[in-house]
Amino acid sequence: MSEAGQSAGAHAPAADALPRIGPNAIIRVAEVLGSRPDDAERVFAAAGLCHHLASPPEQMVDERDVIALQQALRRTLGMDAARAVSFDAGLRTGDYLLAHRIPRPAQRVLRLLPPGPASRMLLKAVGRHAWTFSGSGAFSFVPRSLLHRRPVQVRIDGCPICRGSHAEVPVCDFYTGAFERLFRTLVSRRTQVREVQCQAQGADACVFEMRW
């Protein structure tokens, strides 16, 4: 699963390359704020990203732009509103991936499988392209265990969505929204996604749980 317009066999950039993230992390936030142009201008100006608002990026962006935009959302709109915008942007990113990046035959196969195997296949595909949404962060996952009733867990070390931020609540709602859309569409309509650990709260990594 790549949101960068790469082919199915895309490889991560060289280790010394500038960490980048797919443009959805910018475009979908602007899209959510589209009905509130004053807020959009304030947020993007606070992030120093007015050029992205005027001309939406078509290629991978510097991960620092994504970090700055998320920080500006929280500073400018307040925590609750910022989280709602970020979550909606994540949902829309999931919609984009389903429409343009995950092949239809693969989607049909996933929908036919039981949720456990489907989730493993989906997350393996996500992991192959994790660099397109986690930048310099590290993505990993633990599959569901029926024996111990353990939910699926996704872990992002060095998560860019909350990097440099401190909060009393988890703030990586962009990822929560994207995972929710993908899992509810391809794994189980009953999927609930929750960020159970967040580096903004002092955790060593951001951890998301998927239950159905």
Could you explain the architecture of this structure?
By secondary structure, this protein is of the alpha+beta class. The chain has a single domain, classed as H-NOX domain, CATH 3.90.1520. It contains nine helices and six strands; from the N terminus they run βαααβαααααββαββ. The chain has helices at 24-32, 37-46, 50-54, 63-77, 79-100, 104-112, 115-128, 131-134, 173-186; strands at residues 20-21, 61-62, 138-142, 152-157, 192-197, 206-211. The chain has a four-stranded antiparallel β-sheet with strand order 3-4-6-5, covered by helices on one side. Helix 1 crosses helix 5, helix 2 packs across helix 4 and helix 6 runs antiparallel to helix 7 (115-128). It is globular. The model is unreliable at 4-11 (pLDDT under 50).
Strand content: 5-15%
CATH topology: H-NOX domain
Instruction: Identify the CATH architecture.
Output: Alpha-Beta Complex
Shape: globular
| Strand neighbour order, sheet with most strands | 3-4-6-5
The count of strands amounts to 6
| Category by helix and strand content | alpha+beta
Major beta sheet summary = 4 strands, antiparallel
Number of helices: 9
Q: How many structural domains does the protein architecture include?
A: 1
Q: Can you give the mean pLDDT?
A: 92
* CATH hierarchy class name: Alpha Beta
Tell me the distance between the termini.
22 Å
SSE succession:
EHHHEHHHHHEEHEE
Low-confidence stretches: 4-11
Q: Approximately how much helix is present in the residues?
A: 40-55%
CATH superfamily: H-NOX domain
